[in-house]
Amino acid sequence: MLIQSLEQKTRLALMTVLVTVIGCVVICGFTVIKCMSLVESERSQIYILDGDIPFLAERAQLEENFVMEAKAHVQLFHHYFFNLPPDDAYIKWTVGKAMYMADGSALKQHQALNEKGFYSDIVSSSAVCMIKCDSINFDEHEKTFTYYGTQLIKRRTREQLRSLITTGKIETVPRTQNNPHGLMITNWKTLENKDRQY
Prior knowledge:
Strand order of the largest sheet: 3-4-5-6
Order of helices and strands: HEEHHHHEEEE
Distance between the termini: 114 Å
Largest sheet: 4 strands, antiparallel
């Protein structure tokens, strides 16, 4: 009788220890997983200080702003490529900036304009070329764009207004200082570049 009672108490103590150990392992595992998810969610948040008051700001992924980033990239590329003062060094600098934002298709157009004497004509005639973006149509699924702009060429004797329509594709590349949007224009073509009336 005493041995049987001792055996039951030992079994009860063993079961109590096992249940306690299993419970502790489950609680510790749950705590570790919860802490890791909490740290991960905190890393995705940015706090901005206004004096001593912190404000929570959400990080935006590239996919969420892709259309806006792509349109800004296309507009900036055209700004660098077509806004040209009568300054040879500045033209080389600004067109060089544009070359970081597009592939060899833009370089071919630049070389074609250079061979036609477009840039030397701007410098020699003291012309000023400016581009104004009218609109940009962007297809998010195909990642293609059509740029509609108005080009103004001011010479000493007259002003010339031209309509400009270009098209191309957008590819994602790593962000750099020279390419802050992390996008690349490919297969860039000019569809229309002709005089228009005021």
